[in-house]
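ZP: hey, is the manganese (II) ion complex queued? I don't see it on the tracker
AM: it wasn't, my bad. submitting now with these inputs:
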Amino acid sequence: MATSQVNTGECLEFEYCGRLGDKKQDYIQMTFHQSKSLGTEYIHACHGMIFARTNRVVWEQLSVRACILMQMRFDGVIGFPGGLVDSGEDLVTALNREMEEEIGLEVSKYSFTADDHVETMVNQVKKLVLHFFVKEITEEEFCLVEQRQLSAPEFGVETMGCIRVPLYTMPDGLRGFPAFLANQFIGNARHQLLTGLSHCKIMTQEEIQSSLAKCHQHLARTAQSGCKV
Ligand code: GTP
Ligand code: MN
C-alpha cells in the first residue's frame, strides 16, 4: 500500500482504481519517458513479474517451462505484486518498497532496476499509469522468494498468497494455461502476463493466441449454459 494512504480512512481515496470492468479501449501504450510528462492528475503504479526458467516436466508429459509469480489479492482477483507510487517517490524505489511489503522480497539481493521495465500502459478513464517490470531469477531463488512471502508484512492483508501460473495445456485442451486465463485479473494484469511471456520468449505468439482462443471458447460456453457451479 502506498504510504500516503495508510492513515485512517485514506485507504478509500484510491479505491476506484481497483474497480473491475476495465475495457481494452481504456488503455493506451506509452514509453516510460512519455509517461513522466503526464500531469499531476495521473496516478502511477508499478508491478513486477518475478520468474525462473525450468526444464522440469510433470506427470511425464507436461513441460513446466517457467515458474511465474502472481498473487491472489485482498479483493479476490489475481495480479502481480506492486502498487501505487507515493507522491514524489521514484518509480523503481516504489516498486521495490511494494515488493518488500507484499511478498517480503529481499531487495538487497533481488531489487528491480530501470532496466527491468518492459511496458507502460495508461488507463485514460481512471487516469492511472501502469508500469510493468520483469525480473528473472534462478529456480532455487524462486523457491526461497515463495517461502519468504509467508512472513511479508502484507501477507493476509493486501495479499492472500503467491501463486504459480500453470503454463501447460492439459489433454482436454482447456485446463492449465487456458483455464488460468479465464480467472478475473486486476487492471490489465492478464495483458501484462502475456507481454511478459512473449518478452522473455517463454511462449510464442502462436501459443499465446491459441490459449486465449481456448479460454474465450470456454467463457462463451459457460456464459451460454449458465452452468458455472
Ligand atoms: P492499494 O492502493 O491499497 O490497493 O494498494 P497498492 O498501493 O498495493 O496498489 P495496487 O497494487 O492495488 O495497485 C494500484 C492499482 O493498480 C490497482 O487499483 C489496480 O487498478 C492496478 N493494479 C493492481 N495490480 C495490478 C497488476 O498486477 N497489474 C496491473 N496492470 N494493474 C494492477
Ligand atoms: Mn499492491
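AM: back. The radius of gyration is 18 Å.
ZP: great, adding it to the tracker
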